Amino acid sequence: MAEIEDAKWYVVHTYSGYENKVKANIEKIIENRGMQDVIDQVVVPTQEGIEMKNGRKKSVQRKIFPGYVLLKMIMNDDTWYVVRNTRGVTSFVGPGSKPVALSDEEVISMGIEMPDIELDLSLEELVRVIAGPFEGSIGNVKEINAQKKTVKIRLSIFGRETFVELDYHMLQRV
């Protein structure tokens, strides 16, 4: 039997607006059939947004990929059948009836799973930004948040000192 560490991420297409219902249904099936060893995670990616309603700001969760649910699982005939026949699921993403797993780069770029990065930095240390809009910039470390895995650095942009908070994976020691 394959180990859950070998599980890959797959994308399932659902009826629009049924993402959370599909997630709940799959989680219930996993529990009822004891499939925790082959289906690890079911995710509906969301992000926090601000909405104005009646002149007030309201924090809302928006689906990043409406109509899609992401599953980390070991693909076999049983898991394919169970997921494919879940109410609200229309198909797996892939050519024909053959699901295609997401690559590690796609998973990281979507923000689904972040690699464990240990950054050994100290305050005032110089770092280079290696990804994102500030790529190539060099700045000083001003604050380290180990819980969120972010670092606040001071950059000089257009001659002005600017503080920017970036993820660990976007930085490299100089």
Describe the protein.
This protein is α+β, with helices and mostly antiparallel strands and 174 residues long. The protein folds into 2 domains: 4-110, Alpha-Beta Plaits (2-Layer Sandwich); 126-173, Roll (SH3 type barrels), CATH 2.30.30. It is built from 3 helices and 11 strands; from the N terminus they run E-H-E-E-E-E-H-E-H-E-E-E-E-E. The chain has helices at residues 19-33, 77-84, 104-110, and strands at 8-14, 39-43, 46-53, 56-63, 68-73, 89-92, 126-129, 138-145, 150-157, 160-167, 171-173. The chain has a 5-stranded antiparallel beta sheet, with no helix packed on it. It has a 4-stranded antiparallel beta sheet with strand order 2-5-1-6, with helices on one face. A hairpin with a 2-residue loop joins strand 9 (150-157) and strand 10 (160-167). The longest helix is centred in the N-terminal third of the chain and has 15 residues, at 19-33. It is elongated, with a radius of gyration of 21 Å. The model has no long low-confidence stretch (mean pLDDT 87).
